[in-house]
Specification:
Layout (H helix, E strand, L loop, with lengths): L2 E5 L2 E4 L4 E8 L9 E7 L6 E6 L5 E3 L7 E6 L4 E6 L8 E9 L2 E4 L3 E6 L1
Parallel strand pairs: 2-11
Antiparallel strand pairs: 1-3, 3-8, 4-5, 4-9, 5-6, 7-8, 9-10, 9-11
Length: about 120
Amino acid sequence: QVQLVESGGGLVQAGGSLRLSCAASGPGTIFNIYTMGWYRQAPGKQRDLVAAITSGGSTNYADSVKGRFTISRDNAKNTVYLQMNSLQPEDTAVYYCNARWQLYNHWGQGTQVTVSS
């Protein structure tokens, strides 16, 4: 079982930046095989993909965050990051880390990001 722990959320003014981190751990965790993703869920809305990075380093982003957010991973630290710049109030949500490989799909507990106008 893989445990994912997010950190780095908080309150920021519009135009500001935050960096989220997600550390993976657990017996036998082979971090570098997982596609890692960041999702977000605002109140009353569905959980949507924000960004993902494959084991090979390929990335994809939601259109709404392209050019503002950057996903990266450090396999030596079993950690995935989400650098968020030019934050806007519509980015306010709980951000969840996800690890996916074949039939395995793991979620973190989420971290709140609030952007004030």
